[in-house]
Known about the structure:
Elements: E1 10-11, H1 31-34, H2 39-45, E2 49-59, H3 67-72, E3 82-95, E4 99-103, H4 104-107, E5 112-116, E6 122-131, E7 136-141, E8 163-168, E9 176-187, E10 198-201, E11 213-215, E12 221-228, E13 239-243, H5 244-255, E14 268-272, E15 289-294, H6 299-302, E16 310-314, E17 317-318, H7 322-330, E18 337-344, E19 347-354, E20 367-368, E21 378-382, H8 385-390, E22 400-405, H9 410-413, E23 421-425, E24 428-429, H10 433-440, E25 446-453, E26 456-463
Antiparallel strand pairs: 1-9, 2-3, 2-5, 3-4, 4-7, 5-6, 6-7, 8-9, 8-11, 9-10, 10-13, 11-12, 12-13, 14-15, 15-16, 16-17, 16-18, 18-19, 20-21, 21-22, 22-23, 23-24, 23-25, 25-26
Amino acid sequence: xxxxxxxxxxxxxxxxxxxxxxxxxxxxxxxxxxxxxxxxxxxxxxxxxxxxxxxxxxxxxxxxxxxxxxxxxxxxxxxxxxxxxxxxxxxxxxxxxxxxxxxxxxxxxxxxxxxxxxxxxxxxxxxxxxxxxxxxxxxxxxxxxxxxxxxxxxxxxxxxxxxxxxxxxxxxxxxxxxxxxxxxxxxxxxxxxxxxxxxxxxxxxxxxxxxxxxxxxxxxxxxxxxxxxxxxxxxxxxxxxxxxxxxxxxxxxxxxxxxxxxxxxxxxxxxxxxxxxxxxxxxxxxxxxxxxxxxxxxxxxxxxxxxxxxxxxxxxxxxxxxxxxxxxxxxxxxxxxxxxxxxxxxxxxxxxxxxxxxxxxxxxxxxxxxxxxxxxxxxxxxxxxxxxxxxxxxxxxxxxxxxxxxxxxxxxxxxxxxxxxxxxxxxxxxxxxxxxxxxxxxxxxxxxxxxxxxxxxxxxxxxx
Length: 464
């Protein structure tokens, strides 16, 4: 799967000749009515779909400050003080107060954002929430006019074969609409974000449509178009949208004024049920996800879930792999409970699990590492369930994690990655971020480092 383009399509229906006066048209109430015209659906939804423009000033090359370089290239004439990085995508108004949802990759690294309407009005916007784990972001218009928000539909009610429309700004040509069907549901293994359970559609999606709307025949938002499968960069009829069940979680977090989305914590680990495991687990076929670990005192443990249990559904919605389970659990509402259908010893039971956020069991104590050390440029945190959840690490992970790696830093150059858990340095155990700071500040001829990367323990020796 190659992530090349992103989607949305909104069309100006006014360009097509009408067989009846526009005022006689109504929102279609049956599939038969849809055969006549989709214009009423488009007219209802299109005003809530916008274009999103991002910009970021980048300093000019230091060589431009060299007098010899400047003389060679003709002084300051034509030499910009800075260059601008730009992005283009689409967005959807989801709240009359001025909240707009788009894809995170549309505004990633951007410092300035503008939102443009189909009638060419433009407004500045603040980025109020970035959520790279879902590839969603929420903007807030500054001094917004009267706005029409797009009603959020029920993505869980979609069925394969349902008609949908995609609205956005492909290739920057202007608002465009395309029509198709729901080709598949709960698509995982796409490799776009941490929480994967995408709506697949054959509605044409192209670059510039990222962050746009996928709507049903009632003009309700059912997904945010985010990616296409393409070998050429154009639409091949395989597009993916983030379901509104996940969009609602992110939007509600933005309305609450938080900077990080809070999601339920399961407190355990799961894996896919392989074909050769079904008989051993008392299943008539491979299904659900196998519980492989439970964190002491976590929600799964308190619900008496055990290693060897097979979770087959969350609140009545089937799950067939870890991505599907993670998505379903993450879209439950904090403060309540989720009913997990579990197969245990060949019998089906229902287990209620509390929906609570991951706890901060010990302070993060962030440390930015500096000096003559291979760790320079890395930021280390003490691990806790909350930190592990944010960095997509195993729920039982312990120790100290590298949460950020500065571009071009010694830490990046020697190969450290975000999410590396540092276990030992020269045989000394690393239990806190202060331990790592203290040991990395000591001059060494060499550094023997033991770390955990994605569940694999790696030992390496670095020069001092």
